[in-house]
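Consider the tokenized backbone below.
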């Protein structure tokens, strides 16, 4: 008789610390279990379908016993929360998220608001007293399930983005779209749940996930965990919101929270780059008191992990919930600065050997090059034509290419660097992002998909350049005139967020960088002034 599939509640008493069990629970599941069972943080309860179950599914389909194991854990979740999945009066809703052992941001599938149908949405509206919230959640679910699970590849109708339309009207527009495309989203919540779990398993083998793993040298055979979690709602009225925040700046290493949030929104709105996000420093202005609570959780996580953390959170009617944490990806300068600062930090107290081990020689060299580029002599150029958010530092020039497929083709056919220009990137663009020298988007914030992937790969990126309107083959200025077309050379500065036409080297950070003589001396002085931590870290490395 085959062993039952491995499924674990977040508060399961593992023999080892959950944070060490990424091979079993996946990175996200390990973080959720650690925060729940060890740190006792406010994490919505749920359970993890372990990584080996995904491998079994890939080898032979839906494993025997998995349906029963999910039902057993779902029953425990219902008992804990006092609500029932599929209850037409006051339904429990679920989120289904992936979670591989290695971070693969946005590469695999997520389905939120599971459990809604025409009956349960009425119950949600009545129980919450907020029909706008209920209908908004149902619209989101229908579009997400249709595209993620059923592969419909539909875009929301224009009516769904009409700021003057009611949530009910937006929902009706989406229903009409699905009916016209003959896409039938199942109404049975348990059928929805199985479909979402299978979609996550299958997304491990999606082209975007394969492209990301190839770039990161991640084993194709590992598989992913699946996390099934009670929904909390950032779109639940004016005292709710959602965001992603780093405990320190992942570009510079500054010991200050860095990230974005959106009032009355769900998490996908933040990372998708569609909405104009707000800086995390504005959280307290919009949702007073929540900034203090979040800051306490961030400090606790950094102390516990002894490292910079990347945290996803949702605020539901003033209550702060932590949905994910992981050790953060960071740029080279940030890696150097944070490692040295954490030796001096009495709360974290890294040893010198630990600090050196965290920053590879290649990262130290990259940090040196980034600072030296800021003082090398350069040629003259004109003013920037657009300014966005500096999401990943570095300054590069190259041919503007407006699709990921064309970027991949151009990179193979030309020696000229490529700048991928998009309205916003999506996981499907990852193959083009990986071969680009730089990334420019007109939408998105500091934790959007483009920003997170570019930062992790050390690719300079400017996001949220709202002065630009990006079409299929051109970027237009505020007056509607073409600023540059596909094939034109542009320059972007991922530190300042500036964009220029042509090969621009007039600013410090965009200089070419072959300094000698006085310029070399100026470079060394700049290193000592702007990144003294590098010399400290190199001295520790030499001592080792």
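A designed sequence for it:
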């Amino acid at each position: 008789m085959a062993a039952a599939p491995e499924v674990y509640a977040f508060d399961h008493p593992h023999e080892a610390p959950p944070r060490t069990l990424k091979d079993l629970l996946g990175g996200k599941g390990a973080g959720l279990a650690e925060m729940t069972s060890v740190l006792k943080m406010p994490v919505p309860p749920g359970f993890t379908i372990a990584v080996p179950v995904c491998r079994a599914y890939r080898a032979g389909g839906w494993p025997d016993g998995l349906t029963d194991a999910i039902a057993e854990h779902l029953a425990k979740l219902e008992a804990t929360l006092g609500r029932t999945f599929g209850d037409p009066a006051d339904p429990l809703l679920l989120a289904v998220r992936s979670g591989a052992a290695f971070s693969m941001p946005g590469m695999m599938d997520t389905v939120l608001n599971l459990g809604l149908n025409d009956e349960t949405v009425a119950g949600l509206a009545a129980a919450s007293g907020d029909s706008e919230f209920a209908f908004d959640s149902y619209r989101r679910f229908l579009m997400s399930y249709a595209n993620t699970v059923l592969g419909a590849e539909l875009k929301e109708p224009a009516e769904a983005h009409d700021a003057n339309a009611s949530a009910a009207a937006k929902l009706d527009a989406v229903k009409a779209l699905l009916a016209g495309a003959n896409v039938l989203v199942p109404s049975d919540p348990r059928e929805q749940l199985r479909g979402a779990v299978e979609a996550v398993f299958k997304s491990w083998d999606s082209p975007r996930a394969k492209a990301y793993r190839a770039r990161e040298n991640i084993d194709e055979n590992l598989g992913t965990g699946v996390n099934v979690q009670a929904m909390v709602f950032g779109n639940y009225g004016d005292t709710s919101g959602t965001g992603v925040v780093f405990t320190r700046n992942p570009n510079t290493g500054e010991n200050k929270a860095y990230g974005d949030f959106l009032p009355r929104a769900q998490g996908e709105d933040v990372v998708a780059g569609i909405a104009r996000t707000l800086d995390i420093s504005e959280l307290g202005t919009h949702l007073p008191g929540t900034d203090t609570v979040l800051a306490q959780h961030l400090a606790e996580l950094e102390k516990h992990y002894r490292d910079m953390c990347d945290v996803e959170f949702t605020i539901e009617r003033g209550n702060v919930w932590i949905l994910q944490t992981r050790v953060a990806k960071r740029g080279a300068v940030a890696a150097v600065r944070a490692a040295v600062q954490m030796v001096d930090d009495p709360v974290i107290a890294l040893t010198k050997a630990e600090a050196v081990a965290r920053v590879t020689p290649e990262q130290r060299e990259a940090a040196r090059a980034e600072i030296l580029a800021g003082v090398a002599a350069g040629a003259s150029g004109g003013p920037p034509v657009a300014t966005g958010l500096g999401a990943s530092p570095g300054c590069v020039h190259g041919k503007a290419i407006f699709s990921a497929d064309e970027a991949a083709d151009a990179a193979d056919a030309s020696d000229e660097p490529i700048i991928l220009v998009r309205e916003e990137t999506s996981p499907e663009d990852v193959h083009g992002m990986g071969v680009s020298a730089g990334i420019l988007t007109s939408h998105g914030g500091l934790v959007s998909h483009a920003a997170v992937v570019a930062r992790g790969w050390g690719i300079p990126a400017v996001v949220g350049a709202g002065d630009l309107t990006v079409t299929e083959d051109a970027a237009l200025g505020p007056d509607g005139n073409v600023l540059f077309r596909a094939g034109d050379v542009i320059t972007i500065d991922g530190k300042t967020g500036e964009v220029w036409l042509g090969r621009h080297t007039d600013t410090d950070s965009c200089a070419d960088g072959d300094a000698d003589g006085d310029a070399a001396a100026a470079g060394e002085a700049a290193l000592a002034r702007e990144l003294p931590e590098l010399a400290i870290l190199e001295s520790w490395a030499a001592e080792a």
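Confidence is low (pLDDT under 50) at residues 376-380, 511-515.
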